[in-house]
Amino acid sequence: MTSLYVHIPFCASRCPYCDFATAPATSALRARYLAALRGEIAREGAALGRPRIATAFFGGGTPSLLDPHEIASLSDAIREAFDFTPEEVTFEANPATLDRARLEAWRALGATRMSLGAQSFSQRALASLGRTHVPSDIAPAVTAARSLGMDVNLDLIFGRPDEPDGEWRADLDAALEQVPEHVSAYPLELVLEPEEGIANWGGGGWPTVERWRIAAAAAQPDDDGLADRYELTADVLRAAGYRHYEIANWAQPGKECRHNLVYWRNGEWLGVGAGAHSHLSGRRTRQPGGLLGYLARVEHELGRIDDAAADPAVDTAILALRLDEGLDLAAYGARFGAPARARVDAELRGLDGTGLLERHGDRVVLTDRGRFVANEVFVRLL
Ligand code: SF4
């Protein structure tokens, strides 16, 4: 039994803050990419002995812009390659690229959850992020997914350029009006170094994107402003009955994303498509992020690239601390041995008294403040 991640890189347009592996929806490579993806799925399924898929996640890019016949052919390839009887199937959707026929095709594939890139309910904020959808696209997309029996995650971004006081609070209220089963809320993070081979920067290329990012970063709230917004998010969603189960994720009881929990518990999954990572039998591998690099590798059946930098003991400790269940040092010691446990324990004890961590017996958990500055904790474990 494993989990499956499928990367669909195509987007209607490129958002200037985004660093994911994407390509234009009109790319001449689209059919070739989907054929390569089906081939990769067939080979991996055979190599793994046609395992049962427990959860699946179709991310991107914008999976929701695939045409119904493209979704159906992916579905056929997956069912042929795997015992595809998952408890949860999520697909990512852009509010501007969703229609009934596409939704029904995702439902026929087995989708139980739609993760909607709403980002904000403010037209000003969406424009400041360079998004092409408008606030009035969001509610109909939620209603349509619900009508097919799917749960909904709303993806939101705070700390937008020139964000006025109160705008983020209004976003949280508008999000709650949709009664989503799940909310993901991230601060806007602007990377100023391009990752080679990953991005198709569109328009004027990287120089234009870099100029946009420098101006946007200068207009973002400062660190205190971001911390206030994060605290507000935690307070508002907790009061509304959501469990803050991961640094940036909240869920109604029982509605946590099971697929993402596999990642955070450092479990086993197969990732297919450009830039996709896998973790199988303790080995981390990945595919190239650029479309041409991916095609060259998959069409020549070269297999995935070993992720030499991966350290399972370090990864497991950091990932566990992202969750509200925290890091169970006893279980960690049983999995990685007493020396690994002692090392992690000693590093975390260095933070005793800082208010970033709490200990409950063998379990170490980040506090709310620790969650906001989690990277300061994680860097100690590297
Ligand atoms: S943010 Fe989403 S829609 Fe925008 S370019 Fe990135 S993957 Fe595509």
Which class of secondary structure composition applies to the elements?
A: alpha/beta
Unreliable stretches: none
Strand content: 15-25%
Give the CATH topology of the largest domain: pyruvate-formate lyase- activating enzyme
Mean pLDDT: 94
| CATH-level-4 superfamily name of the largest domain | tm_1862 like domain
What share of the residues lie within helices? Answer: 40-55%
Number of strands: 17
Number of domains: 2
Distance between the termini: 30 Å
The appropriate CATH architecture of the largest domain is Alpha-Beta Horseshoe
Class of the largest domain, according to the CATH hierarchy? Alpha Beta
Strand order of the largest sheet: 9-10-8-7-6-5-4-1-11
Q: What value does the Rg take, in angstroms? A: 21 Å
Question: Count the helices. How many?
Answer: 15
Q: What profile does the largest beta sheet have? A: 9 strands, mixed
Query: Ligands in the structure?
Result: iron/sulfur cluster
Shape estimate: globular
Can you give a write-up of this model?
The chain has two domains: 2-263, pyruvate-formate lyase- activating enzyme (Alpha-Beta Horseshoe), CATH 3.80.30; 311-382, Arc Repressor Mutant, subunit A (Orthogonal Bundle). 42% of the residues lie in helices and 22% in strands. It has 15 helices and 17 strands. The strands form four sheets. It has a nine-stranded mixed β-sheet, with helices on both faces. α1 packs parallel to α2 (68-81), α1 crosses α10 (291-299) and α6 packs parallel to α8 (223-239). The longest helix is centred in the first third of the chain and has 18 residues, at 30-47. It is globular and about 55 Å long. The two termini are 30 Å apart. Iron/sulfur cluster binds at residues 11, 14-15, 18, 20, 22, 60-62, 94, 117. Iron/sulfur cluster is lined by residues 11, 14-15, 18, 20, 22, 60-62, 94, 117.
